[in-house]
């Protein structure tokens, strides 16, 4: 529009007469026939103008239309202004700065007919300096600030001329290079100006000068309402660009959901800058923006969800795919304006972030979980295929042995899981369901190994080693509630987790049920050790204890340590006769398989609870051990195997409650 302006190609001023235009046409054709350079007297030539047979023919054709001449004339030089006679000679001599200084004197003045040509020439010179360079032999640096500034000032001068000059004065000025029938319609002039205005911006983009939409709006608004209405063209074009991108996105994966993610990414790339410029044109509260922004957000979310669902059906999404999905959801949430679509986008963001975070945590934990899994497989082999007590004892001892190098023992591997879990999930991980479950599983496995070794071995040293290992387990494990426990000879203190969820570095949390079973067996092992060291006539009887490993990896079935029994109840036992109380209690006879009455069932329930409480009290003498063993034998002979009517046992437990003392 500037460098290839037809007036520029022909070397004419825009307001030249018809006779001069005809002479130039004839001379130009003659020069072309003989191959003479197209250089004319008093020429205005700027670097970048292409003069050849094709451009000359096109220029002559373009100037034949009166409406086209309005647009071309408003973007080339004229000579009807008060300062033009002084500035144009300087321009022909190559003195751009001299001509610029002359025309700049009217730059800030309100446009009037006497200097309308001067303002037009000032704008044209600014545009040529932006595109061509500071002189005929020079070039501006690519996209320099000076070029951008000159382009903006040139466009603004044109907008002020067309927008602020009176309708009659504007018609008089345009009549100098067009027909009267055209210039009598102010809208025709504005339309022609708008077409040339936007063509100039497109030409500037080819030279590396990008004009933001917001800047274009400011320039057009500087000319007042007459030129400000041209901003609607930008609005329509912006909507069309976005709508085309939305339609392309929807059709790209219509028959192939595997392409949905790529389609969403292309839509995001195509609309990010366009929507930003569109918002600058009409503001983000304008319904024209909010409607197209919501359509874009919804199209991106649809593509994202389609791809996510497709990947869920065909296989697990990769971490890179999840992060790409998160970018789409975040962009949709960013541009969404409507409440419903914004809420949907935010929900997608939160969901995808959880997936991304969980995948990162899973990947971070993969190594330590694999090492722990190998140890559990080995534990399963020991449980199923190793009946020799000393080998089970050796396995338990190795599992509890700390190493300074590569983690190999159960405690080392659990510590690796705990540390990696804290890094991935935060300081509360030691109290998490996963870590407590793992601790409970390992504790039960080790407890099962040493208990079964103790029960199966006939060698006193092996039984002693098994009891020692069992009694040491509370130094490595603690109940999740962090309780303290008293043993026969020593007090074992268990760390109580603080409000920050921290756990003592030498211990691992287990479920309270698991820890209670551990402490019960620890107490039994101490009682049994005293009994076997002082009484060689004790006989054994026991109660079953089944331990099932979590996750279905390992299943161990073991027996609790036997409680050495005495010869039977003494004649002076306080339960030798029926007690009188608000509830009727009656001692069952020694027998198995009997149907017990309610008073007999109550007695068994109460006696069972008493034995459990006494079991936790440390034995201080052989007499205490004998009394306890006698009571156990008495209970087993009467209550270990009996029948009852439906509901009687539950009723007895409710009636005895916690007060069976």
Helix content: 55-70%
How far apart are the termini?
Answer: 107 Å
Which regions are unreliable across 5 or more consecutive residues at pLDDT < 50? 483-504, 530-581
What amount of the residues lies in strands?
under 5%
Radius of gyration: 48 Å
The general outline is: rod-shaped
Write out key terms for the chains shown.
single chain; two-stranded parallel sheet; two-stranded antiparallel sheet; 10 strands; rod-shaped
Which helices and strands appear, and what pairs or packs with what?
Elements: H1 6-10, H2 18-34, H3 53-62, H4 66-73, H5 84-92, H6 96-103, H7 116-131, H8 145-164, H9 167-175, H10 180-183, H11 186-206, H12 213-221, H13 225-228, H14 231-252, H15 260-282, H16 287-314, H17 319-335, H18 339-385, H19 389-399, H20 410-425, H21 433-456, H22 460-472, E1 477-479, E2 485-486, E3 491-492, E4 508-510, H23 512-534, E5 539-541, E6 544-548, E7 555-559, E8 563-565, E9 594-595, H24 598-615, H25 622-639, E10 642-643, H26 648-656
Parallel strand pairs: 1-4, 9-10
Antiparallel strand pairs: 2-3, 5-8, 6-7
């Amino acid at each position: 529009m500037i460098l290839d302006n037809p007036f520029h190609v022909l070397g004419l001023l825009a307001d030249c007469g018809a006779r001069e235009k005809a002479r130039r046409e004839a001379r130009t054709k003659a020069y072309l026939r003989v191959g003479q350079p197209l250089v004319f007297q008093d020429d205005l030539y700027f670097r970048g103008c292409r003069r050849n047979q094709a451009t000359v023919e096109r220029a002559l054709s373009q100037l034949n239309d009166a409406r086209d001449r309005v647009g071309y004339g408003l973007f080339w030089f004229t000579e009807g202004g008060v300062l033009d006679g002084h500035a144009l000679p300087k321009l022909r001599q190559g003195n751009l700065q001299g001509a610029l200084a002359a025309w700049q004197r009217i730059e800030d003045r309100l446009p009037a007919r006497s200097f309308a040509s001067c303002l037009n020439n000032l704008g044209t010179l600014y545009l040529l300096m932006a595109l061509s360079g500071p002189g005929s032999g020079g070039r501006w640096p690519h996209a320099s600030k000076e070029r951008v500034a000159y382009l903006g000032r040139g466009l603004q001068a044109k907008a002020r001329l067309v927008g602020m000059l009176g309708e009659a004065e504007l018609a008089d000025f345009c009549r100098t290079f067009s027909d009267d029938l055209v210039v009598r319609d102010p809208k025709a002039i504005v339309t022609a100006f708008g077409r040339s205005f936007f063509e100039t911006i497109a030409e500037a983009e080819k030279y590396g000068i990008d004009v933001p939409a917001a800047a274009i709006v400011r320039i057009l608004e500087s000319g007042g309402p007459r030129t400000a209405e041209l901003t609607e063209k930008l609005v329509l074009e912006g909507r069309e660009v976005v709508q085309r991108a939305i339609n392309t996105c929807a059709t790209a994966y219509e028959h192939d959901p595997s392409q949905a993610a790529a389609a969403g990414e292309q839509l995001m790339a195509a609309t990010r800058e366009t929507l930003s410029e569109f918002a600058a044109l009409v503001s983000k509260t304008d319904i024209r923006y909010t409607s197209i922004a919501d359509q874009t957000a919804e199209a991106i979310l649809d593509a994202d969800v389609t791809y996510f669902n497709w990947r869920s059906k065909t296989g697990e999404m990769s971490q890179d795919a999840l992060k790409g999905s998160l970018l789409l959801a975040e962009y949709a949430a960013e541009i969404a304006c409507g409440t419903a679509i914004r809420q949907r986008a935010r929900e997608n963001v939160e969901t995808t972030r959880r997936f991304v975070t969980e995948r990162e945590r899973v990947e971070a934990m993969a190594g330590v979980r694999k090492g722990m899994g190998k140890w559990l497989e080995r534990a399963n082999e020991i449980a199923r295929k190793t009946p020799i007590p000393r080998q089970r004892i050796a396995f338990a001892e190795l599992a509890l042995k700390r190493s300074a190098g590569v983690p190999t023992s159960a405690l080392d591997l659990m510590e690796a899981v705990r540390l990696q879990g804290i890094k991935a999930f935060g300081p509360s991980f030691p109290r998490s369901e996963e870590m407590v479950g793992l601790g409970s599983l390992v504790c039960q496995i080790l407890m099962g190994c040493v208990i079964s070794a103790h029960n199966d071995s006939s060698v006193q040293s092996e039984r002693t080693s098994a009891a020692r290992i069992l009694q040491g387990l509370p130094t490595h494990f603690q109940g999740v509630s962090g309780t303290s426990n008293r043993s026969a000879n020593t007090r074992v203190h268990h760390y109580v987790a603080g409000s920050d969820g921290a756990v003592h570095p030498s211990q691992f949390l287990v479920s309270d049920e698991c820890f209670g079973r551990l402490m019960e067996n620890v107490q039994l092992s101490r009682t049994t050790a005293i009994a076997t060291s002082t009484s060689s006539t004790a006989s054994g009887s026991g109660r079953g204890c089944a331990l099932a490993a979590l996750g279905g990896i390992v299943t161990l079935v073991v027996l609790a340590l036997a409680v050495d029994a005495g010869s039977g109840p003494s004649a002076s036992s306080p339960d030798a006769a029926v007690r009188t109380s608000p509830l009727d209690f009656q001692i069952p006879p020694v027998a198995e398989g009997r149907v017990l009455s309610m008073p007999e069932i109550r007695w068994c329930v109460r006696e069972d609870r008493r034995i459990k409480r006494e079991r936790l009290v440390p034995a201080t003498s052989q007499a205490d051990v004998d009394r306890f063993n006698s009571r156990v034998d008495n209970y087993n002979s009467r209550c270990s195997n009996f029948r009852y009517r439906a509901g009687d046992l539950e009723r007895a437990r409710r009636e005895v409650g916690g007060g069976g003392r």
